[in-house]
Fold:
Amino acid sequence: MKILVTNDDGIKCPNLKMLVEYLTKYYDEIMVIAPTTEQSAVSHKINIANPITLIEHEDIIKGVKTYSIDSTPADCVKFAIHHFNYDFDIVFSGFNNGLNLGEDITYSGTVAAVTEAMFYGKRGVATSSERGNHQGFIDGFDLFMKEYLSKDIYNKYNCFNVNFPVNPKGIKYTYPGSNKYKYWFEPIDKNIYIPKALPLFQKEGKDDIYTDLECYHNGYITITPITSDMTNYEILKEMKHK
Structure:
């Protein structure tokens, strides 16, 4: 089985190497293509006109070919398929330095890499952990992989978004919650502002609420099956009967 690994934090992010190290316990053939520089919150952006520079790096781990391109996570997947003809089975993206929960999934370059793979009929797993804290990934990745490799459902459905809390109690299957923020733009010079955000989520402590936010904040690894299909089928069905 062939594995592609990418991220949106860039080729120099230590989380990338850690993800590859953990994946070598489960897979023999791995290639890394990551952005040359950080591409956080670029969503599904691709480059359609500008030149792209490919850099070959020393193997991130012995035997794992490692490259970067000065473009986005989605383009890393395209480059693997169309330039290297690397017919991978699964792309693992991350693990992200920061959570991807609720509406933040739509902004995430980490998640966009796996939805790009889904366009080609490939499987994908986006992985994220608390910003600046590797422990959630360390505590939870093997638990997730045991689940991932043991159930046939993961072979049937393409794309999963996974978030790792510190000291996970277990795994919950979830849907995206509502990740609200207080936003403001802080002036630093004339007509120049820095965007700021403060999360407003308050944990309710209810284990039976299956949003990714609630389950994560109650200490569970969250696994959310996601799709690129943005169609509202309920409305479409109603429109067809008008």
Notes: The longest helix spans residues 135-150. The mean pLDDT is 94. The chain has one domain: 2-229.
